[in-house]
Amino acid sequence: MTHLISLITLIYCSCGYRISRMPNTKDVPDYYQMGPGTLKIPNTLFKDNRKRMCDRLVAKNISRGAVMFFEGGRQEQQYDTDRDIEFQQESYFMWLFGVMEADFYGAIDVDNCESILFMPRLPDSYAVWMGELKTPEYFKKRYGVDRVNYTDEMVTILSQLRPSALLIMDGVNSDSKSHFEAPSFEGMDQFKIDTTTLYNEIAECRVRKSPGEMEIMRYVNEMSCDAHKEVMKMMRPGRMEYEGEATFKHYAYMKGGMRFVGYTCICASGENAAVLHYGHAGEPNDKRVNSGDMLLFDMGSEYAGYTADITVSFPANGRFTENQKFVYNTCLKANRAVQAAMRPGVSWPDMHRLAERTIVEEFIKEGVLINGTADEMTDAYMGAIFMPHGLGHLIGLDVHDVGGYVNAPPRIDEPGIKYLRTTRDLEEGMVITVEPGVYFGDALIEKAYANPEQAKFMNKEKIEQFRGMGGVRIEDGVAVTADGIELLSHNVPRTVEEIEEFMNRSN
Amino acid sequence: MTHLISLITLIYCSCGYRISRMPNTKDVPDYYQMGPGTLKIPNTLFKDNRKRMCDRLVAKNISRGAVMFFEGGRQEQQYDTDRDIEFQQESYFMWLFGVMEADFYGAIDVDNCESILFMPRLPDSYAVWMGELKTPEYFKKRYGVDRVNYTDEMVTILSQLRPSALLIMDGVNSDSKSHFEAPSFEGMDQFKIDTTTLYNEIAECRVRKSPGEMEIMRYVNEMSCDAHKEVMKMMRPGRMEYEGEATFKHYAYMKGGMRFVGYTCICASGENAAVLHYGHAGEPNDKRVNSGDMLLFDMGSEYAGYTADITVSFPANGRFTENQKFVYNTCLKANRAVQAAMRPGVSWPDMHRLAERTIVEEFIKEGVLINGTADEMTDAYMGAIFMPHGLGHLIGLDVHDVGGYVNAPPRIDEPGIKYLRTTRDLEEGMVITVEPGVYFGDALIEKAYANPEQAKFMNKEKIEQFRGMGGVRIEDGVAVTADGIELLSHNVPRTVEEIEEFMNRSN
């Protein structure tokens, strides 16, 4: 996460005139809230997270006397320019401290869970360019930590704690395979450093959401659903795909105070819907929407770092064709079958297989797949031709949230299911997306046609009728409860009838 | 810009089934256009840029037989996650090639200006996840270069050119002081490398906009002005600052196809207006707008990488108070005085001094500054108390565009003017912002009160009347023509009368 240089640049010379206004700490909010009508998040939510982490280490009786040490996200610039990239806090640091500002560090004493934030000592000119120079007292109240010091005091303060070790983050993200760069600072060599304990333990803590976190997940899901409905009201043939993105972002920001989306908006129409991560710089949602197009809009907004991830699929002109209805209902049946089966103890790979199986069975009923049983077709991996991605992923501060392969069975190296971002059994408090998809993508269909083991099951005449329609994805945010699920993304129209009614009512 | 690892990761194993669809190149656009009604930018604009660069080197008779070699921006992820940061091309690479996609390289033969793009060889799975696997033929037509090869062919192709040297980018950005990291790739050691020629020469070329670039600058300015007007229509007491940001972005994207803004939106109300770069993560436009507030909204949208940078200041309730009117008109007078004096050959520091002088003179007239002449006050740097930033900056692909200190007099180390991002004389084809500001910021006023050399000129009673109002900035985008200027941001209301009429008409 850091390089030595970053710490040095934080230690500004503090000469010249200083604004010595003491903030009136009773006016300092002890919560995050963007505006009226948006969610208020008390700083105790993050204190609770810290406690969960300490309790976990104490219960395991490991790292007694140690201090956990974290580096927050740094303010970075676009290439070599002075244009600041809009700052979003690093997720582990956010989970522990709820700090919205860049260039902080934090420490937590394992034994008593006392917390310290280290803030950058900013130059006087900051007040002119960036805003009031906030004091340690301000941040202590705002973030509810036990103390706040400057980063240039960090080594001294940490030494005074006489930690048996500094526990630092070091590990590899199971989604990106990226290495989490361990923090490094001048004077670090005087401490015993433990790089092995923290990364997986904290990932494990992030897997189950606390009641407070669940409130945020409800909020981001409901706001994102409402934003999707705004999009559904305005998208019609003749519109551009990117107008959907613009409308979604606008609604979520205006009504929900949500400045960021959790991932690049996917606003795919027609055959673009078969491109799973459409919408990036090379395919920037720039197609015109045509009358016969199905739309697949996969967007989620975030608040205080927590994000939603919701996909709606609907016909641009407000009326499903028979073919579109069949594909949509197949996908919905898979989605509903999974949600009906979800509860603690259920294996997520089993849910993936259930979704695939549902799709295969519907395809047999319709005569899209022929000449075999569902079992034979499952053995030939027919499902992954039409649903080539994983069923869903943990979600929270990261859209693909951490912990999916911590304390989990190994990745399953078979088509489709190999992309699952977790192989774990479901547990109460997990939030996970349920996002089966049914696509008719050229690449995979052509590849299957060329493979006799798969081609023999394929009714080409039928399949060709669906080519060009792209596909359908129905993605919900779902929390696992003690005995089943809570559907977080409940307020979008989902059935064919609900969608047609919504699209035609709002015209 | 690069690390060895990045090149290696681009050389994917290309095994398995390959989609061999040849694109029908006559359908490939040879221009950039986001949607209907948005600007069409022919790829010849970038070819023209390459030619300007080659002509410059040839005219100087340097680097004959050499090949310029560039690395484009890389797709990066948020921290250690797999969440792609929305890609925006590196500005030098954009200027030369107009490439919207990540992970390209490019080369230009100095002698004949022949151009090669090197594209990543993507795995087959790209077609499923990210979209159609485009071919070299596609990109050759799309970007109008002489040839396109894969990055894994780069060393071979470059060797065949037998260059006398590879000219590569290496230098320090004069705004950020950041080092532009020179590209590096396996096999590079077989070439003679020249790191000294390119950086400043290409920055110099970017300073004067071509007619094609000027079209883009007109477009981004006009669209951004229209977006500001939408904001002015809806901002009223009781709104939140961030609703201004949401509205601006929405309009620019919906109408202009502009997915990005060129810098963090500054939506400051009341005393926040004195914070020059308000709006960042620590001050995220989250104040409620009150009835007596002046608003200072500094926002610009970008298209094909080129950005606008426009500030409007207006009263939230649609009517200026007498004090607000005085401050606004002082700022406008400075803005207009500068624009009236601008033409080729005029020194930009002289324009900065003209703006400061105008403000000081108006303050003397009003009795805000007392006990001295404008000359005496200028010698005491009184202007920089109220306008602590530079008058304006070059703008183009970067909001603070490059070249400001290439072939320029040295930086002037005096209050306020030291922040000028260029000390050059104006030249035809430059685009530069004219953004005088008049602020009553606590930090600088308190500091001046404490300095007897400045305090003696200050009418505290008067100044205290303005405290808390924040400030006013009036920022235009201006192109320098052969005999004067072209005002690019012409379509926003600017005078007190125009603003009051606009705000009250649209209610």
Task: Explain what the structure shows.
- Chain A is of the alpha+beta class and about 500 residues long.
- Chain A is about 35% helix and about 15% strand.
- The first copy, chain A, has 17 helices and 21 strands.
- In chain A, the strands form seven sheets. A six-stranded mixed beta sheet of chain A has the order 6-5-4-3-7-10, with helices on both faces. Chain A has a three-stranded antiparallel beta sheet with strand order 11-14-15. In chain A, strands 12-13-16 form a three-stranded antiparallel beta sheet.
- In chain A, a hairpin with a 5-residue loop joins strand 4 and strand 5.
- In chain A, helix 2 crosses helix 3 and helix 10 packs antiparallel against helix 11.
- The two termini of chain A are about 50 Å apart.
- The N terminus of chain A is likely disordered.
- Chains A and B meet through helix 4, strand 9, helix 9 and helix 14 of A and helix 4, strand 9, helix 9 and helix 14 of B.
Short structural description:
With 507 residues, the first copy, chain A, is of the alpha+beta class. In chain A, 35% of the residues lie in helices and 14% in strands. The longest helix of chain A is centred in the middle third of the chain and has 24 residues, at 211-234.
Secondary-structure topology with pairs:
The structure is a homodimer of 507-residue chains.
Chain A: H1 4-10, E1 31-32, E2 41-42, H2 44-60, E3 67-71, H3 91-97, E4 105-109, E5 115-119, H4 125-129, H5 136-143, E6 147-150, H6 154-160, E7 166-168, E8 171-172, E9 179-180, E10 193-194, H7 198-207, H8 211-234, H9 241-256, E11 260-261, E12 266-269, E13 294-299, E14 301-303, E15 306-307, E16 310-315, H10 322-341, H11 348-366, H12 374-379, H13 383-386, E17 431-434, E18 437-439, H14 442-449, H15 452-455, H16 460-466, E19 471-473, E20 476-480, E21 485-487, H17 496-505
Helix pairs in contact in A: 2-3, 2-7, 8-9, 10-11
